[in-house]
Write a structure and sequence with these properties.
about 300 residues; alpha+beta; 11 strands; about 35% helix; elongated
Length: about 300
Amino acid sequence: MAKKGLKRKQKAEAVKKEDESKAILPLVRRSDEPVTKKAKWINRERILVFGTRGISFQHRHLMKDIIKLLPHAKSANKMERKENLFVVNEMCKMSHCNKCILFDGRLQRDLYMWFSNSPDGPSIKFNVESIFTSAELKLTGNCLKGSRPLLSFDNSFDEHPQYSLMREMFVQIFGVPDHHPKSQPFVDNVLNFSVLDNRIWFRNYQILDENGAIAEIGPRFVLQPIRIFKGSFCGETLWENPFYVTPAKTRRLLKDNKKDKYTNNKIQRKAKKTKELLAPFRVKPENEIFRDGNVKEKAKHLIAKNKKAF
């Protein structure tokens, strides 16, 4: 019985020690005191990526490729083209997104891409050219889905203020936040932005080894800037591209060139036909002998002329 009593005493002493070691919380605490939390995911950028009705299958596949590149992106249903673009700000607010990429398709052939900082702005409108999706390129590469990319920019982005603003927009949109729940803790691809011929060329490369060898994996496209607006899909124009020509105008110019070529060919064919029709009626030099005058003298004159020619 004595042993049992000792065991009970030891257990009671151990429980008392545990209660003393526990931290005693204050009885009264103010409600406005913030709760201390260790948050690794500080950058809370969220991108809303969607398109309007009227985009083609190629534009849709390009949109899916960009969503795969951005693990912090959200997708939405297609928007009706009749609605005002200012509605996009409300869609971003409902989806808890502060950035937006909108694919605006026209006539199943032209594609315009909007990059916007919702709801305060600025927003940039681009015309997308030379589109090649990842499936079309069929390039080798096993880049990890959801990995954080390195962003590489050309030196031309430092020379002009409009390109500096575009670079900042690209950094905030394509830069995957550190410790994002859907991102992978690896850096195995490079997104390259370079300026050439007043256009921004986008390329995606995979890092093959530590020595810096890279291989293109797609997608690839060219962005031609049109305008920079102060607000999100609205506001005054901060910058306008003076070299921009609409796709409809370029198609019309190409058609006019073909039209001129067709008219030239038509004139040449007509001239050839008239030449062929007049060929039988041309007077041969031998027929001049039998005209008025001495036949023998004319024959001698022609023989002498032929001899001189030889």
